[in-house]
Amino acid sequence: MGQPLRWGRRYLMVRPDHFRIDYVINPYMSTQDQPDPALTRRQWDALRQAIVDAGGSVEVLEQRPDSPDMVYAMNLGLATADGRAMLSHMRFEPRRHESLTAAEWFTGHGFALDRAGGDGVGPHFESGDAFVFGDSLVVGYGPRTEALALKHLATEWNLRVRGLRIAHEGMYHLDLPFCPVDSTHALVYPPAFDAASQAELAGIVPEPIVLTDDEAFAFSGNSVVVGETILMPACSPRLREILTGLGLRVVVLDLSEFHKGGGSARCLTNPLDFDLSGITVPGGDVILPA
Ligand SMILES: NC(=[NH2+])NCCC[C@H](N)C(=O)O
Fold this sequence. Notes:
Blueprint: E1 10-15, H1 37-53, E2 57-62, E3 77-79, E4 84-87, H2 97-108, E5 112-115, E6 130-133, E7 136-141, H3 147-157, E8 160-165, E9 178-180, E10 185-188, H4 195-204, E11 207-210, H5 213-217, E12 224-226, E13 229-232, H6 237-245, E14 249-252, H7 256-259, E15 270-271, E16 285-287
Parallel strand pairs: 1-2, 4-5, 7-8, 8-16, 10-11, 13-14
Antiparallel strand pairs: 1-15, 3-4, 6-7, 9-10, 12-13
The chain binds arginine (ARG).
Arginine binds next to loops.
């Protein structure tokens, strides 16, 4: 039986005042299928309230009118409990303005700001690809984050970084096929990764909860764990039995409007309290799949 996660109590969310599908950068997006603004807001309010009800706290950032994807706050940067933030360098140009506002927010809220590669034009890094789990920062790379960013994360923050190469266009961020649940369990969807990374994943997660295709594409892997509660966009009866068996309270939320942009509960919430104390190593270390 795992111990509760040591992070995931404090979140940043972006209020969806300008959420639209203006461009297509993942297989879920279509400019022909726009979110309904009122329903969007109700779903977002319910997610925020559910985090608070579970004992978490939420800080709210206003959305830039020029950045329709900014609602997916998970990608604004990797923030730590000891007050550091590694800003994302987005793969696609239409999301890059988000970083200007994110940088201001992190700095204004007492976070010391870093950029992977130092100058902000270094390798792409999107923080939806990074989670603290076990003895390392687990980072997905390929569709969005570049392998070189892992090297920078490791050396600049003295971290043990384990890379997983994503090889599935529908699973373009690590937070879609991978969700830490407690210290030993994580929801995983192995077909998201190439063969070497699937083998690596088996070594990273002592007690994997393997998602079916249907569960993974209902965004069940894009869930948020707040203490003993897991907030999920969908939960099959099978999954519910496993999760409640671990002592978790399962809360299912309808986040249909956000699925139109290719993201769900996790994408909408950026944990501000990652604990790096158990994953630091002098000089850093990057472990890549064979
Ligand atoms: N953390 C996430 N997976 N966020 C989803 C981001 C969705 C956004 N439309 C994009 O493709 O960039």
